[in-house]
Each structure stands twice: as C-alpha cells, then as structure tokens.
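If your schedule permits, I should be very grateful for your opinion on a structural question. Kindly check, if you would, that the fold set down in the tokens agrees with what the sequence suggests. Thank you for your consideration; the sequence and its tokens are set out here:
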Amino acid sequence: MSNSDSTQPPQSPQPTMRAIRQDEFGGTEVLQEVEIPRPKPGIGEVLVRVRAAGFNPTDWKNRQARRTVSVPLPLVLGWDVSGTVEAVGPGVTVHSTGDEVFGMLPYPDGVGAFAEYVVAPARSLVAKPEGLDHVQAGALPLAALTAYQALVDTAGVREGQRVLIHAAAGGVGHLAVQIAKARGAYVIGTASAAKHEFVRGIGADEVIDYRTTDFAEAVRDVDVVLDTVGDDYTERSLSTLREGGTLVTIVPSPEAMRTLSSAAEQRGVRGEVMIVEADQEGMRAVADLAREGALRAEIAGTYPLEQAAKVHELAETNRTVGKLVLTL
C-alpha cells in the first residue's frame, strides 16, 4: 500500500478555554468573552485552572493603553491568580497536579489570569493556606506583594516606627496597614471621612481626611511613607519624614523617577520608586500572614468572568474599598 493510501489517526482537537480578551485599546467595550486555545506549560511552568483572579488598577490602565505591559494585542489581562494546578511542565518539582496555589504572574508582561486557565512560572506561586478561600487568595497577590516589598524589603519597617500610608482604604493601602501593624509599627493613614472607620478597624492608629486636612502640614516625624497616589503626593510627603526616613512610591511617573532621589537627598531622607516583582519568598510571607489571620483582603465585590467589563467600570471610579475579584 502506498503512503497516499494510508490513513492517519484522527488528531484530538486542542482544548479551549473562555477568556476575556481585547483586540484594541479603549473603553470597556473593547473587552470580549472569547474561546481560545488552552495554553500548555513549558519548562519550569505550571498550568493553573483559575478559580479566582483579583483585579488591580493596572488592569484598567493597561486596557486603555496607559500601559506598562509590552505584550502585543490581542491581550488577556490579569496578574492575580488562585486556583488548582492542572498540569506541570518539564523540570517542575515545587508543585504537583492537584495542588491549590496562588500568586502573581510576573509583572508586567506575565498577564493572562482573566481566563479559565493560565500558565505561570512554577516559582511565582505558593501553596494556598487551607483556611484561605480562593476569593481571598485571588485578591491578595499583586497588592499584598506590592505592600510587602515596599514596607519590608525596601523600607525595612520595624517595631515602634511611625508609618504614613496614603489611600489606606485602597487595594494596596489596606493591606499595607495590616502588614505595618503586624511588624509593630504605629500607622497613620489618609482616607476620605467615610472610610475612617474601616481604616481604623484594620489597625490604623490615626486617620487623616485628605479632603479637609493637608497631611503635609498635619504629619511630622514619620519613619516611612508609602505613597500609592503619586502626582504631588510624592514630593509633599517628603516633608513628613524625620531625618533618615524613607519614602517609597509605587507610582513610577517619569517625574518621580527623574527627581525623587535628589529631592529626598536635599532633605536628608531616602526616596525610592518601586515596581512590584514576582517573588516566591514574598508570596510565602504573604501566605504566612494570611494563615495567621494578620492579613486579610477586604472584598469590594465578586463577579463572574463574563462580567469583567463591569469590574473595570467599578474599578475606574476609584471609590471601592478593598479589592474586586473575578470568579470562575
């Protein structure tokens, strides 16, 4: 029989998955629920079945092309993930199929969590504590890692220090309050009056209404400032620091990156611009704090994957307290 007469066994169709994708930049109308091929894990990677994916301001900013990510269109956003390991790639020893894990995909180009499945570097994920549900776990990674890397790794917050946290009711801010308190700091937060009770409830010792009070006049002699707002907050916050103190801004504006270090040096303080990194050691610290009950995300709302556009709209108002989470 000739080769032309032979029959090939039928190939199994490639598995697919639902995802929220955009083919262009713009408003929420660019978001589409689509069926796309399910990814396969490569060397050092795992395939995670997503159970919950936290939403962060960087998601809607990248949707609009106010972007840090360089991944070309079409684009599936999302960095926070909590779920179950579906498959492991070659060389992976730290996770096994069936493990419940959570973590942050490498920022900024490791996007893709707003889908039923996502591939992630194995060492960007850690075991999900048994007492933590997927919504809580999915809400924590990017915001909690940002707060931890700013306060602990960069500023070295320790017991007895005074820490000023801007937007203390926000996604990063409310987790930063808890992390600073867990390290024994005296915490001052800025927030609108309506959110003061919440901010005190998560551990803040003082709360300042930024709408009626100039924090730069009201606060003095702090050891660490965490700036989550940017704009003029960055330089104005320098005046609140005691000599030798540290300001960390997580809003990497061109102006801050160009002038902060010299402005801080003139005042005898330290100024740092920080961008969050995927970090297994940091995720383990976050998991430990959550396991101990010292760190908990405030959930502003949970929505199914197909309502991703609504989550974008809510997030853009900047009025939510805590985190929005997509669930699958």
In short: DSSP finds ten helices and 16 strands in the chain.
